[in-house]
# Entry
Amino acid sequence: MESNRPVATSWHELATPQGVMWLYRAVPQGAQPQRAIVVLQEAFGVNAHIQDVTNRAAAAGYVAVAPQLFHRTGTDTVEYSDHPAAMELIGALGREEIASDITAVCDHLASADGIALPQIGLMGFCFGGRAAITAATALPGLGATAAFYGPGVAAGQHAVLDRFGEVTGPVLHLSGDEDPTIPAEHLDAIRAAGQAAGKDVRIEVFPGAGHAFHCDARPAMYRAEQAQKAWGLAMDLFASSL
# Structure
């Protein structure tokens, strides 16, 4: 699926039950893809890095969109250095809020592009990884989910292991073995919940990588080799499942 195709980008207002949510959109120029990837932000908003990731997904031949999940507070982005503000914002986004927002995005893709749930994949990073798996438990019929280092799936106030029975398409969780936010016991719990529910839940752990290893906007955390491998696995998932 990978290509160097140029993409066209735009911003759109999307109505949700809790107000207007901005949606960043990227599409390959001169094409009308019939598959889509929804990119879910880190704890820092739909910043330049998330927009770049969305562009990469579009260049691979998809309609790619990134919803601004902080719309309830009017916050666009948070600086990487302002960790307390980011944690406060994502802490307020529970299962219901995430499900509502991603349902609105998928409804938009259906009406604007004619792309139905089985042709939609979710790809999330950090908080967005948790959000992607959360949304997968609330959208029966969804094509596939790739969660990059998503903490809080197995434990905490927003854990969703009890809802794995609602997942339809395959789920891929990608994390580093040096990530303190996702200990091995949490990965074991995710794997076990998938097996108990009879779902296709895959865990990939990358040696020598910590949290945010895919984020090339944060050089101290970025690990190029592991990031490339993880991205390739996610793209393979979408190519085979959507």
